[in-house]
Design a protein that fits this description.
By secondary structure, this protein is α/β, with parallel strands linked by helices. The protein is built from 14 helices and 14 strands.
């Protein structure tokens, strides 16, 4: 496994696509002083191309932009291949329509794309990964690299990133049915999303395509992969999605029917003690506790719990669960996920850290043969 000492001596150059958007900015914030990776290219739309990054971006975070990143010239999406010939790893925060073709082009050129875009999450040969939940699905990179010289790894929708992580410790109790109601922060709609006027003193009881994404992506992540492809989990799932006037943090009300007997003490222990490969490997963006369990009736709350996670680099990577209740074979709880970090930028970055730890890519950024 690649360790932090080695990483400090030999950082891998990476590019960030969609760098001026909210998720792209969050990626650059997380990549600042990263022990494994160094930003060497930023790309955005033609409108921003040619400007220095600090001139092209409306920076949304209190931390200042790293001066080296601020001075980088913004490349157009079309110029990424020619300008980034010496870069093997790209993080994609592109809109889905742009990502669909460009990510495939990069893969054919031998590049390794860690994507937050929705375009390829359900593609039959592309894994949809939460490192603590389904790292075994990375075995699908073997066939992908045989067919192309590069690969695409996706992370899920911002709701699913928290939901599937919260369900993982319950998986062997056999999930039969799942109902989820989401209360989603305005930042989930992006910089040019829902207007403040539309949400002032209001909630919007529909988010386009969101409920379908939650159904499809949750089942793919909690399903199985074999050489014949991905087989989704077979439980039923009904989602209802609401946009609320909260800056950051998606709150979920979850009702899950389990086939096997359980008690609340057992569930609480499973959640509180759950750890995955990122914790075992002590990856930089992994929170030491991926799930924080609250006993208080009034938690979790977006205002207080959206930025949980330790060490400081992993702030926003822990989900919060509270109000555990049992009704026969039904378990109910509230779950909070940071939609910008665990639900987006941090998810893509943790996927890349895990691929490096598993030696699916080499310290120089090229692919190794272990997954083929």
């Amino acid at each position: 496994m690649r360790n932090e000492k080695t990483a400090s001596q030999e950082k891998i150059k990476v590019g960030v696509l969609g760098s001026t958007g909210l998720v792209g900015q969050q990626l650059l914030r997380l990549l600042d002083q990263h022990p494994f990776f160094e930003v060497a290219l930023v790309a955005a739309s033609e409108q921003s191309a040619g400007k220095a990054y600090h001139e092209a971006v409306v920076w949304q975070f209190p931390e200042e932009i790293n001066p080296k990143i601020a001075a980088l010239p913004v490349e157009s999406n079309e110029a990424v291949l020619s300008r980034g010939q010496d870069i093997s790893i790209f993080f994609s925060a592109l809109p889905a329509g742009v990502a669909l073709a460009l990510e495939k082009t990069l893969r054919r050129a031998g590049k390794y794309v860690f994507s937050n875009a929705s375009s390829h999450r359900l593609t039959k040969d592309v894994p949809l990964i939460i490192p603590e939940v389904n790292p075994e699905h990375l075995a699908s990179l073997g066939p992908q690299k045989k067919k192309y010289s590069g690969f695409i790894v996706t992370n899920p929708n911002c709701v699913v990133a928290g939901l599937a992580l919260g369900l993982k410790p319950l998986k062997d109790l056999e999930i039969k049915n799942l109902q989820v109601t989401t209360f989603q922060a305005i930042s989930g709609a992006g910089l040019n999303g829902v207007s403040a006027l539309a949400l002032a003193g209001n909630v919007l009881p529909f988010i386009p395509e969101e409920e379908t994404k939650i159904f499809q992506e949750t089942r793919k992540i909690l399903g199985q992969w074999s050489v014949s492809g991905f087989k989704p989990a077979q439980f039923d799932l009904i989602a209802s999605c609401v946009r609320v006037p909260v800056p950051v943090g998606h709150l979920l009300s979850v009702v899950v029917e389990l086939a096997r007997p359980f008690d609340l003490d057992e569930i609480a222990l499973r959640l509180a003690t759950f750890r995955g490969l990122p914790q075992q490997f002590k990856l930089p963006t992994a929170s030491t506790r991926p799930i924080v369990l609250w006993g208080e009736d009034n938690r979790p709350q977006p205002k207080f719990d959206s930025w949980l996670g330790h060490p400081p680099r992993a702030r926003g990577m822990a989900i919060a669960i509270g109000r555990l209740r049992q009704h026969g074979q039904f378990l109910t709880f509230f779950l909070l996920v940071n939609n910008l970090v665990r639900g987006a930028a941090g998810a893509a970055l943790l996927n890349a850290e895990l691929a490096l730890a598993l030696e699916l890519i080499s310290p120089s950024g090229g692919a190794l043969g272990k997954s083929s």
